[in-house]
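Here is one chain, start to finish.
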Amino acid sequence: MLVVIGLASKKVVNYPDLNTDITFANECSVFMKAIIKLSLGLCGLVLLAGCEDKVDHSKIRQDGFVYCDQGRPSTFNPQLVDGGITVESIAPQIFDTLLTLNSGTHQPVPNLAKSWQVNKTGTEYTFYLRQGVQFQTTDWFTPTRTLNADDVVFSFNRIIDPNNPFHQVGGSVYPWFAGIDFANLVQSVEAVDELTVKFTLSRPDNSFLSNISTAHAPIYSAEYAGNLLFSDKKLDIDTLPVGTGPFYLDEYQVADLVRLKRHDNYWRGPVQMSQVVFDISHRGAGALAKLLRNECDVLNSPISSQIPVILEEDSVVLQAKPAMNVAFVAMNTQHRALSDARVRKALNLAINRDNILEAVYFGSGEKAYSLLPPSSWAHQKDAVQVRYDRNYAMALLREAGYAHGLELTMAVPLEPRVYNPSPRKTAELIQANFADIGITLNLLTDDRVDRQELSNIESVDMLLTGWVGNTGDPDNYLRPLLSCTSKREGLNLSMWCNDDFDFILDLALEVNQPRYRLNLYRQAQNILNEEVPVLPIAHGQKYQAHNENLTGFRTSPFNAQPFDQVVRLK
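Its structure:
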């Protein structure tokens, strides 16, 4: 087996841009492997006896590949969601953005915009578009022109302008943009000429270029939108998408598959693979079983406990990369005892993160000292105190008036994510830790539990959740998850608001000197250390397993996976 992580028992291959040593507890017990293999065998019997596989794998392999992924798309518009399969896997194939992020430097580089200029005050950004970029031709739209400035204006005005006829489509909820206060930042987007667009900002913002480089900022066809408006089919813009990316949507079978076909007029040149099929019919062991039976060519984000089984397969390549993510517990600071910082500090001290890393991440994760991952340039390991101290935790509870304990409820999603391979197990370990200091933690476990669905459920004290960074900028973590603006918009589930914290974040976006910004983010993390609105748990590794006959996968530290360079070796 060819492995892209450093394991003594396997051939070692250095993965591009992988600057951090990756260790993995490959001495997984024989018992653990047996359990996983048994579950795969049972899964295979169920598949053979009880359902028909709707994907013709042999035909697809002639000119494409099957990609097994977690989750099912609720929309094909990445503007409308804050994460998941749409943002990470599907949208990067259908759409392009003005700029894109270099996976090594984390800096914005040209994409649909070939260049840009910024005025002296940092409030005007002028972008110069590439000429001759073709939109996709589909069964529902045939373009009559190439990309121009009107397309960029439409794509961003839909987000920031309540009067845009498409603003309300999809519920007028743009969670990721709301979390960074994008609508108040961008005053206007205007077409200077056919291939020139100018953004005017209300204030300088050093994260602006990075933010519009993410998969959340696709460029749509204004011509297509106009056709839908005329025919009164505005909802189709999110279910029957049209972009400029290397693949276009061909077929969607709900809960089964998403099929993309090659865009032959792609501006970078047509890609080699003529189709990609996202198999979304199985999760967990079911998806792993498909990989091992060669029914999936790629398994995205296998959980840590599955890695030992994958390592035994000679025909599978495993890629790993430190990812920009964090698992954490959001505490509703408006609730009872959780409004007291002493209680929140006690909960932070009660969690044994080393046990979680061993039992849930199998040694593949890193302890989280703050929301910022180790690969962030503003990460300060010594800025936040994270340790396991049961006695001090109990003393803080006594000081806060809870010597006899209290009862709390935590919502727990069941779907594994890159930042948390097993949310249920993580929650159970936290539950046991809290019991040791006299706190009864009731777990609300449900497949439907996620950040957006719980944003208005006031009965929940805590939510086990996480965040995958879209950029390398620290503002991409701190503002969406903890700012006062984000509290109003629903991403800040801690319901915590601190004016000093927000002032520091705003100031950090206005100063240009890196060392000053670093100092400001240290101050911001010091505030979090005192207030403890969230409980950082761990940072997960980004894994991807694929058939050895495929090459060209680029495992990004962010949450977008491009397929434009994937080829099948003969």
